[in-house]
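Summary for the steering committee. One of the milestones for this cycle was to obtain a three-dimensional model of the protein with FE2/S2 (inorganic) cluster bound, which we needed before selecting residues for the alanine scan. The sequence and ligand used are listed below.
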Amino acid sequence: MNRRDFLKSSTALSGALVIGFYLPAGGRAFAQAPAKMVYPPNAFLRIAKDNTVTVVVKHLEFGQGVQTSLPMLVCEELECDWTKVKTELAGSNPVYGNVFMGGFQITGGSSSVANSFDQMRLVGAQARTMLIQAAATQWKVKPETLKAENGFVVGGGKKASFGSLADAAMKLPLPEGVKLKEPGQWKLVGKPTRRLDAPDKVDGKTVFGIDVKRPNLHTAVVMHAPVFGAQVKSFNADKVKAIPGVTHVIEITSGVAVLGKGYWAAKTGRDALEIEWDIPPESATLSTERLRADYRAEAKKPNGAVVKAAANADALKGAAKTIVAEYEFPFLAHAAMEPLNCTVEAREGSAEIWAGTQMPSVDQAAAAKVLGLQPAQVKINTMTTGGGFGRRANPNSDWIVDACEIAKAAKVPVKLVWSREDDIRGGYYRPMYVHRAEIGLDAQGNILGWNLDIVGQSILAGTPFESMMVKGGVDATSVEGTADTKYEIPNLAVKLHTVALPVPALWWRSVGHTHTAYVMETLIDEVAAASKQDPVEFRRKLLAKDAKFLAVLNLAAEKSGWGSALPPGRARGVAIVESFGTVCAQVAEVSLENGAPKVHRVTAAIDCGTVVNPLTVEAQVQSAIAYGLGAALYSELTLKQGGVVQSNFHDYRVLRLSDMPRVAVHVVPSGNKPSGVGEPGTPPIAPAVANALAALTGKRARVLPFANEKWA
Amino acid sequence: MAKFYVNGEAIQFNAAPDTPLLWAIRDHIGLTGTKFGCGMAQCGACTVHVNGEATRSCVTPVSAIEGKRVNTIEGLPDSPVTKAVRAAWLDKDVVQCGYCQPGQIMSATALLAKNPKPTDEQIDEAMSGNLCRCGTYQRIRDAVKTASASLGTKK
Ligand code: FES
Ligand code: FES
């Protein structure tokens, strides 16, 4: 297949401008002129003589399964042999842009399968058409008399492998108006398909970013400021240099880097650093205690930016009953299993980077700026990655910039590695939030009005996304899931109070829904309880006009045995949330064990449109529940004198295997295009558990995590 | 200088004797299947076998393993337990990002080598020191049980 044709093929859908663009050959010729390129590999697909098909996966594989689901889409149309499919992760290049995100190369927003669904199928269909045409020309027959089957073109008693036809097919023009299969014709899409990347991961052979090996590679660790907003005043490296294996000590913008032969030497060197920090006074007094008081006071002020105004501003005045609830959500670190790392080789006039990143084009530009290069002179090798959850999509490219500054100054190949302590204390958190709600009910328990004030930092302020997603002082990610709720709530008023802090903020799996869904879903339960209505029945009433929500809610209720008797000491709770185009409902079954919440079962129902790989959907819903449940039960970062108290998994607790409930995932069949799967399972779990705990104990947890509450 | 064996090969380690085995394996010997996750025995990503025992290599200085046999994910013995665990891990499609999985498999193989028929509680106990931020726990439990069941039938 001809490379240019594949570029055309991708642009047909994405509209991305790729003129003058070409792919590097052998990973090093990216600064060469196109004229020198002979048969460069095409963008998404290569077919080899031995009939193996290599699919170039344009999204980062960090656990969500794109390295299997994207090839499934290509192969469905290509009609190749699934057992001969190989994959490769794409580097930074505009052709691999996210169709939903203006062509920016982003893995995020639960969009990987959704934005690739048409594009990858088209790539496969065009390739198949060209292979058939090549055979038709060779055999002097009409292409309509031939078909593609399991890696071969067959017809008229003849048979030729894709591999034998690939060269001829590559020279053909890109076919126009190729038709995609109807869902009823799918052989692979929709079928439970085991992961292509599993065997290497099971054998420990997969090379993650942290495993990169290069000649003369030095490991770097950075001592960052222990207080947010502080800067290096002076440092003494005498003791560091005496440590065997330490090679360099370098001051960079964010702190002091120590380089060594291997991590242990570098880390031991860092431990011996003596640094004096310049601490701004406002940072020195920063504490969770202070923020708690400030945020709660702020939530009562009338001056928030209006997200939504009530039709009747006086709706609460005649209420027979008023519910007033204040909620508090802590800072959260992503704590992906693989600590952040980045390998950089800065050369004369070019550079090469190895990293697991969700936004390679943003990082490429940031790296180029530090290294004094053009973005096109920086090649990013996207590495298989041990989780991200949003942390590896940083508009500031913090760890990439650090690594580039170090490599530039040290003039040697550098692998920057973060410790877990760096990760827990290094900022870019799900921000702390306080919500204050006042709900007025009439004597029958009907909602008269609902005021909500949200206080917290903006995730997007000061980033390139600000102009798109911060309007009228309202960061869309702070309030998603509130004013746009599908519940029919009369006189809903939402205000946002944005706070500026020196603590860097970032999106964390499911972003604003991490807190807004908790408030909405626990309050809906509380309103139902106030008038003694069943929580599922009450939701059905408020969602009566939304067939999608109702189907998901009903499936979760039915499969969980909602309403049936439970053993003594157990209770159920429900929550339903829409995020990333997907609706997910969960019913949690809980008890108290030794005075602490224990979640036994979770029944999840989800409508995520067309399912490409049912195993991925199941795994990602389990994953999202585990991630959200760990945070709800245990996770919390607290600030003291401008720094973070917690440092590692012993005090920043996350879910362990013994805490994992049995999760059953049920999918509502849908003929719609795929919507998000990676994140939508996270928002419902905390409120479902909280509602179950309230049913069990009568206590409504207003402050997360639940470990802060006395349950028995 | 510390001497020990990694996957059957004799190693003479010359760097600082307080170097954790994890970094000796990764940076000096160059085997990268053993992962760094926390450095303080909290996550299990670095789990290896030392004389057959599941051991957190991030808190085990090389000075403490003088003369001992270390096996990493790359050097698991070609035993029925290893085969059963690998097969079960693939059958249950356990992995997601995969970063924690070498550690999970080292813990699971150590468990089943000692106790081929663990109870649910014993599985929870043996596996709860291995964090998985992708939340593959349910499939890990299922895979350990599948592997255990297959060990019973084949012997
Ligand atoms: S790295 Fe050793 S237990 Fe986490
Ligand atoms: S599979 Fe990703 S951390 Fe376990």
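Key point for the committee: Residues 1-41 of chain A have pLDDT under 50 and may be disordered.
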